UniProtKB/TrEMBL annotation:
InterPro entries: NAD(P)-bd_dom_sf (IPR036291), Sc_DH/Rdtase_CS (IPR020904), SDR_fam (IPR002347). It comes from the Bacteria. This is SDR family oxidoreductase. Pfam families: adh_short_C2 (PF13561). The keyword Ubl conjugation does not apply.
Amino acid sequence: MQGLTGRVALVTGGGVRLGRELAESLGRAGATVAVHHHGSREGAESVVATLRGMGGRARAFQADLTRAESIAPLVEEVERELGAISILVNSAARFDRAPFVETTADTMEACWALNVRAPYLLSQQVARRMLARGGGDIINILDVGGAFAPWRGYSAYGITKAALTHLTRCLALELAPSIRVNGVAPGTVLPPETMAPTVREALQRRIPQRRFGVPADVAEAVLFFLTGPAFITGQILAVDGGRMLESAPA
């Protein structure tokens, strides 16, 4: 698969978990990949080594996206080292769980800084360059717990993903026709290893496909937006095995 040959993709949080799969999938599809990380240097370098081993082009870039002043230098460094960014995947995120009455202001601020402000400012920096060059794609990694229905115990996380969902639609409207902006909303993918077996089994029974998702499911959805029909923008694709059907109106 070489559908992204010649394109430079910046993937935030690309050294671990879902971000790692996204970075590797884009590289396998032919993209040159800028693998962003904050503290996961070893993971990011491992992704780079994997892609280079397949004959691809990739490089790791470090930045603390919660610091607004770090965003413009990151974009400038990526474009200086790898070339013009034509794909941005906003994947880096915090996933904090706490009852609403116990959620601290610090947790709320930390979720907001990484899950909303960072993709807002990063998309802004990249979009300015994309517009000057004729276009590109922005993909936001959302969550069914923010895009479609609330999850108990994740108020801080959920409202930030809801905000990012709305931002996806705002940017699709404002940056058209040259930049397409879409979102992928995973369901339960990579559940915590500490999840009790009974909880895991009960959760799986609530999913019509009777399984949890895997990172490749999400990566394939991202590739659909990037290599599939060009007449799609502002859409949110749930990758949840049908779980949100339980929340749909009759």
